[in-house]
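Re: that chain you flagged

S.,

Sorry for the slow reply, it's been a week of failed gels. I finally had a moment to sit down with the sequence you sent. For the record, here it is as I used it:
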Amino acid sequence: MLLFLILLAFFGFSSASVVARVGSEAIRKNELYQYFNSYWREILHLPIARATKEDVQNFLVELVRSKVIRQEAKKMGISLRDAEVEDYIQKNIGSKKLSSVALYLIKTELLVDKIAERLYKGSEITENQVVAYYYLNLRDFKMPAQVRLERFLADSLESANELYYRLSSGIELWEDIKGVKKGEAIWYSIQALPDVLKAQLSPYEVGRVSKPIYTEAGYVVFRVVGRRNEGILPLEEAKPMVRAKLIREKRQEVLKEWLEKTLKNYRVEFYFSQL
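Prediction finished late last night. Pasting the structure tokens below so you have them in one place:
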């Protein structure tokens, strides 16, 4: 019994070990691994067995930064609307069944974007800059064969089947079907499509519709609205991508400088030996 109490005390102390401090706030080992496990499984969708100590260490650094960013966002009066978070999850994650930790990480990333947008007050990207970047980086615009898919989400199989019937029959009226939402049309690499979509959508003719596919978020139906063969993306199509990339790079430069200066105002300590 005494040995059990000693072991319990030892492991209890170990799980509560402080691995970092941000000002007066301590990050404990059990908190770190709770965050890390959710990040690894729900955001990266990777098996936790593949995670290394270096992965955990790098994540701890990012977790410290996230706490600083959240405090600074509050000082700047920057907040998030529920609709913004839901829209991001629908477009980038898919599943709504996320842990509170995963939601925390997602909200932090959205706050980072808002801070970067607030900080960046530089001049607009010029047409010449866009064209120059495109021709100097043509290799980046070599695209595989792609298909553009519309994504519909239904909350029941009955609604999904009705949607499938209408779309596959060429009937564009679907807004009156209960519990159906339409997502943004996105280009996908044909080679990277899941086998279930390849089987249903091949040969990827415009208008072709997939049967309802069950996911944690509901029943999904895809419709082909465009296709392009392998080759270099034309300049006119690439311009919005280039402009967005250049703005993103400039914002990241400003954000990096801001974060380096901001971190100097915080007492930050790491205890990597406790990992």
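What I noticed first: Residues 1-15 have pLDDT under 50 and may be disordered.

Talk soon,
D.
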